[in-house]
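Data deposition worksheet. Section B asks for the primary sequence of the deposited chain exactly as it was used as input, without tags or linkers unless they were present during the calculation. Section C holds the resulting structure in token form. Section D is free text for depositor observations; keep each observation to a single sentence. Incomplete worksheets are returned to the depositor.
Section A, Depositor: J.P.
Section B:
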Amino acid sequence: MHSDINACYVSIELLDRPELRGLPVAVGGDETARHGIILAKSDQAKRCGVKTGMVLWQARQLCPELIVLRPHYDKYEKVSHAARAIYSEFTDRQEPFGLDESWLDLTGCHAYRDGYLAAQEIRRRIRRDLGVTVSVGVSWNKPFAKLGSDYRKPDAVTVFDRDNFRQAVWPLPVSDLLFAGPASTRTLGAMGIRTIGQLAAADPEALRLRMGKSGLTLYRYANGWDDSPVRRFDRPSPPKSIGNSTTPPRDLLCEADVRAVMLALAEEVGGRLRQGRYRAGLLEVSVRDAASLGWASRQTLLRRPADGTRELYRLAMDLFRQLHAWPAPLRGLGLRAGALASADAPEQMDMFTDHRRLDGQRRIDAAVDAIREKYGTRSIRYMGAALPEELPREKCSFADR
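Section C:
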């Protein structure tokens, strides 16, 4: 099954603000820091056309009476952990899919042989003990279970089994399918594929030629052929990448701005790599143009896997200079490490690397990590690094690049 807390952020906020129930409510970011987008919305706001990811001023145009609340992630994590504790009473195989969603596998759980009855009990327990509601989808595979939790909201259970899925699932738009994002939906639409049933009946070779591996994955999902397991909560799958992006309070107008933010991003990404005992074999830099708000990115395979802050920063700035030409200002900046390899794997030495200097830098990073673990992430940092909110308010000139 797949359990999804309905309007998670809003529902949790309304536990402390019951007088707002029945009103158009949304949880949104900080507009002064230019993070002013809709993170979650109530059903009343949804009926007005408010959508997740919409900027707040657009949402207020559609719904002038919209009430916007600031997010409190500590409360969301607390409720999420409590929900997972309830799930653990039914099965030890639960795989979180964000704060508000989890897959559960009850195969072989003798106390709950009927998936529908177990889902109803989970739904009742969450509502009684936590004060929020969930929608639960029940099926024999993860994509259809996820589709079921989206099918009826709020506070509902939907079953897609081998007898009814052709009638119930195949007429649905292909965009409802797991991982069928806007780009995939447009590509499938250009091929004349608009429903999940049409996707299931499509030529897999044509999908592969047009969309690559993702086309075949969606084809299998549409036919219910996914057999990926639900991982145990204490055995999460290894990450495919580690990254971070940010939108500063003002546009980045010169390379001095970018260097300050990029070094902070390299510290964050490098620290997470070292914490997980990974090294990056690929690095990607992305920039968001202030005029069009569109993202562009460039990536490169690394000659040697890296996890050091200074090395990641140097490589990232090289990529940035290939990607972006001034004077166009930037709204956002991102850094992602991919092709992850274990830091404990044997390392091939080469004659082009100063390994003594590399070893010294790794000792510095280890010392910095230890200080931050004991005294906090802001207790020590590289000179020149600036968190986005710490950028000087005065705008540098293009000559500073």
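Section D:
The domain at 2-72 is CATH 3.40.1170.60 (MutS, DNA mismatch repair protein, domain I).
The longest helix spans residues 255-275.
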